Amino acid sequence: DWNSGNVIAEQVAKIQAQVGTGKVICGLSGGVDSAVAAAIVHKAVGDQLVCVFVDHGLLRQDERRQVEEDYVKATGVRLVTIDAVEQFETALAGVTDPETKRKIIGREFIRTFEKAQADLIAESREQDGDPIRFLVQGTLYPDVVESGGGTGTANIKSHHNVGGLPEDLTFELVEPLRALFKDEVRAIGRELGLPEVIVGRQPFPGPGLGIRIVGEVTRERLDLLRKADAIVRAELTEAGLDQDIWQCPVVLLADVRSVGVQGDGRTYGHPIVLRPVSSEDAMTADWTRLPYDVLAKISNRITNEVEGVNRVVLDVTSKPPGTIEWE
Ligand code: XMP
């Protein structure tokens, strides 16, 4: 029967057989899948693995530190962080359309990751003539089924004009989670001693907070949203509600202003939307009936602690017709 210790031992042996003395690279997203995949590979081949983490500035409060400190301490992986905050800020300037934001964020992400990859490959080749030939992916069983079966290699073409990458570089994929479901991945992560903040993490979209600001994405708005989001997460955890919630996007309506009153004066601030949903698979969802006292505390804290926000509103739409995210 299923046992996380057995799965780990099995995968470790399999990875060692596949990789031998080869070098391996893995992109960490901050999410649970890539974190667990990298940890298993590290257990199998140690410092033959190097991980890359791109900070695009659209992360939530503390996420970078959790990867750089907590995760690295728990696993011992070699980590290279790429600080791309300014690059993404520049690329997103003036953009308000959600799909355009997604395209820009995806494009910049691939560029940044491939540039880091090319640098590491060059460095590795210089050291001992052995380029990196293996790429770890946190593919889960549901992803395998959805995409209709097996791959095995990834063709990374250097059409992004980053320079340094061979014309048509082929990586062999290492996918230790291919037979697993999400809850099994979490169990394995815990067995491997990964931090609970990473293993227990709710789904978070790749474009991050970039698609939770309705309007243009700016550094000030990201800072504001990060504060509000951190308050919501802390209060939901404090109230013991994490198990009832699939995810709770916190959205800044940056293009909307409304009148409020604070102290002696009128304010003209932005609304923050709470979007707590319960779901099995994100295909459909219902809005989570949060206790009023928890909502009251969140609202008080946000309006008191987050400058520029004078209203907190609750989204009571199911999916369909609403989507989970606002953009
Ligand atoms: P929606 O908003 O479509 O979201 O109901 C369903 C699930 O997908 C996530 N989501 C994304 N994930 N890139 C991602 O990696 C995206 O562009 C994106 N948009 C939505 C969303 O958080 C939810 O879990």
TrEMBL record:
- Reply yes or no: does the keyword Nucleotide-binding apply: yes
Assigned GO CC terms: cytosol
Could you name the domain of life of the organism this protein comes from?
A: Bacteria
**What Enzyme Commission number(s) does the record list for this chain?**
6.3.5.2
Q: Where does ATP bind?
A: 29-35
| Enzyme class at the top of the EC tree | ligase
- Keywords from the named record: ATP-binding, Glutamine amidotransferase, GMP biosynthesis, Ligase, Nucleotide-binding, Purine biosynthesis
Pathway the protein acts in: Purine metabolism; GMP biosynthesis; GMP from XMP (L-Gln route): step 1/1
**Single Gene Ontology MF annotation:** GMP synthase activity
- Domain GMPS ATP-PPase, which positions? 2-201
The answer to keyword ATP-binding applying to this record is yes
- Reactions listed under catalytic activity: XMP + L-glutamine + ATP + H2O = GMP + L-glutamate + AMP + diphosphate + 2 H(+)
> What is annotated about its quaternary structure and interactions?
Homodimer.
The job of this chain, per UniProt, is described as: Catalyzes the synthesis of GMP from XMP.
Name the UniProt record assigns to this protein: GMP synthase [glutamine-hydrolyzing]
Q: Which organism is it from?
A: Mycetocola lacteus
Provide the taxonomic classification: Bacteria, Bacillati, Actinomycetota, Actinomycetes, Micrococcales
Name of the gene this protein is made from: guaA
